[in-house]
């Protein structure tokens, strides 16, 4: 059928009601958002953002309400979608923006693709990877993997992807979203090493929409975290409190979940796998720790400073 591109949509969307089908690849996926309120009678108040791209650039795509439980888990980073009967809206100005792996990619930030059950009822088709043709010109998923030795030179809030061998994982902890609110964020701390430094990656992992992964992070698993943000305490000693925290678009993968993921082709991931083959499991097992209370960043040594 006749296809359109994201670039054409941006130029013509105001003058059209019906749009030609779109063929896009998913480059980023946000966590699932629940926006239900007691006074609003919505059956499934869910929303999820994806960043999708074709040969012309990248645009946000929003999955609404009952389409979320139906499609959220099937649409992964790297999935190719054929979209029919979708709506185009002005984009929401305050949403988070992932950092694209390809810095040259054009963005279309003013509009977004809206997928709904009605008005119009969207038709979503997943194209299996083996049926994707090179002439479609769909971009590959690109990453920004860093090694632990590179981390100390990165600025605050820099976006990156990491892979490491888990040596410590803390218990799940809760933090209030707002001071007097009843909603909590769930998170846990983890350490992962990659052989490039004596220091581990210190990772603050908030529960994303992957409970099956979040609950099963344990020592000796290969952990991949994407779209992480660098956090450094710029006041005290900057090198002592550098860690990585998840963002709205972070994805977490552990041993058993890596097969078929686009990052398996990345050079730094391959280098890490080569390094693990030189390690003895018994030696690493002796250094692993699980659970317990992990105060981080650590409080100062004396009470006056605190």
From TrEMBL:
Highest rank taxon of the organism: Eukaryota
GO molecular function: single-stranded DNA binding
UniProt protein name: RADX protein
Gene name of this polypeptide: Radx_1
Cited Gene3D superfamilies: Nucleic acid-binding proteins
Pfam families: RADX
SUPFAM superfamilies: Nucleic acid-binding proteins (SSF50249)
Signal peptide from the UniProt entry: none
InterPro entries: NA-bd_OB-fold, RADX
């Amino acid at each position: 059928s006749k296809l359109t591109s994201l670039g054409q949509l941006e130029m013509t969307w105001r003058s059209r009601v019906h749009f030609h089908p779109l063929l896009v690849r998913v480059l980023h996926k946000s966590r699932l958002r629940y926006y239900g309120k007691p006074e609003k009678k919505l059956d499934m108040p869910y929303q999820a953002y994806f960043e999708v791209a074709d040969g012309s650039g990248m645009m946000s795509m929003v999955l609404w309400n009952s389409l979320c439980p139906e499609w959220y888990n099937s649409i992964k980073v790297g999935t190719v979608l054929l979209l029919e009967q979708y709506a185009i809206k002005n984009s929401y100005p305050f949403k988070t923006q992932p950092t694209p792996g390809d810095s040259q990619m054009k963005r279309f930030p003013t509009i977004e693709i809206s997928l709904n059950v009605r008005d119009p009822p969207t038709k979503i088709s997943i194209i299996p990877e083996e049926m994707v043709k090179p002439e479609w010109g769909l971009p590959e998923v690109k990453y920004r993997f860093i090694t632990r030795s590179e981390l100390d030179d990165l600025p605050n809030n820099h976006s990156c992807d990491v892979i490491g061998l888990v040596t410590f994982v803390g218990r799940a902890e809760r933090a209030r979203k707002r001071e007097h609110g009843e909603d909590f964020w769930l998170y846990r701390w983890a350490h992962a090493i990659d052989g490039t430094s004596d220091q581990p990656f210190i990772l603050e992992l908030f529960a994303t929409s992957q409970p099956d992964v979040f609950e099963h992070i344990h020592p000796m698993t290969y952990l991949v975290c994407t779209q992480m943000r660098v956090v450094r305490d710029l006041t005290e000693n900057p090198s002592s409190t550098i860690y990585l925290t998840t963002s709205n678009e972070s994805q977490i993968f552990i041993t058993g979940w890596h097969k078929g993921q686009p990052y398996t082709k990345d050079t730094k991931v391959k280098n890490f796998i080569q390094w693990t083959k030189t390690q003895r499991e018994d030696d690493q097992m002796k250094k692993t720790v699980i659970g317990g209370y992990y105060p981080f960043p650590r409080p100062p040594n004396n009470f006056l400073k605190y």
